[in-house]
Model the fold of this input.
Amino acid sequence: MTKRVITLGIMKLAVAGEESDVALDKTIEAATARFNQVVQHKLDIQIESFSFTGLSLTPDQNGYRALDFVQIGINEKTERKLAFMLIITDVEIAAASMSYLLALPSQLTNVAVISTRRLLDSEVTQEDRLIKRLTHLMLQCFGRLLNLKYTQEPTNYLAYVQVPDDLDAMQAFTAAQYQQMAESLPQEANDRYSEGSRFSFVIRHILSNIPRIVRGAIRANPLRLVTKLPTMIATALSVIIVLIFGGETWDFAASVSYSQLAVFVVSSFLAATFVLYRAFSFQLISTRRGQTSESSVVTAAATYLALVLTLICMFIMFGVLMYGVVVFVFPDPLMSTWTSDKDGASLAAHIRLAAFLAAVGVLSGSLGGSADSRSVVRNVLFAADET
Done:
């Protein structure tokens, strides 16, 4: 059997309007050499360095978005059949929750973005110090892509980085961390590509990667994602508030069967997740030869599952809210007489009404939710952490 080669790509990414920076090339080359010394004698991995020569990037809104770099990384990683990708650029990257960004590792996509702009806080060039800091940041990002946890030990490569000076104290991985990296490397690579039926490839690798898909979806934190969708919540509430004060809605809730209601709820979830997935997911592409990557399958499945869990949280929230409105706002005589031939004041009718309104809220909210900030939602879905 041919030995499986796991490859890590280290890519310099140029930006619109900037010529190739020879000094940066030398810095990346030196940092890559030091990175190899730390990694390759312990891990069975191949390193491939190259520069991105495709379309240039231009600033959007408040600056360059890290996740735009991730999209390019996904494309290059897929075409070159790489397992992991470290993208190094010398431009300032806009962060979602910090004043600036040193690095953004995306465990779901196996791509990490590193900016050298703030690694030196002095205008005086200190080449060796810059190389050292970049090397340590590369090692930390690679460790994070392999699911290593942060540590409180400042001399460890996985120490928390508050300011660039914290990178100077880093010295090594522990033996336990090397062991974990060696075990995680083949599992997290996701570097297989389709041969033959694409449908069977997708189904097979979804089933074989269920733990990884679930972990990625949970890491996205559906409850946190709900708070990033204010337009969706506002749209949903505006629709269900109108419906709850309509007599036809109460008639429907009092008369509909549970099987009919279940079909409506499931259909609403499928439609809503499709709309949100199209709005917020990365464009997952195939190679020029039409091959689909295992990494794309895992990323797509985890994204879809995260959105489903988000909608479930929203469904429960809307359902509880509407049930509270029904119980504490509407008078019993009105609920009993508003419906045509069924008692709308029963507990069963209240539950059906709350479920129906919550499903309508999820469906209508997804249409408005696609207008929410794409970069903010993507950051929650795809960014493991910001450094």
About this structure: DSSP finds 14 helices and seven strands in the chain.
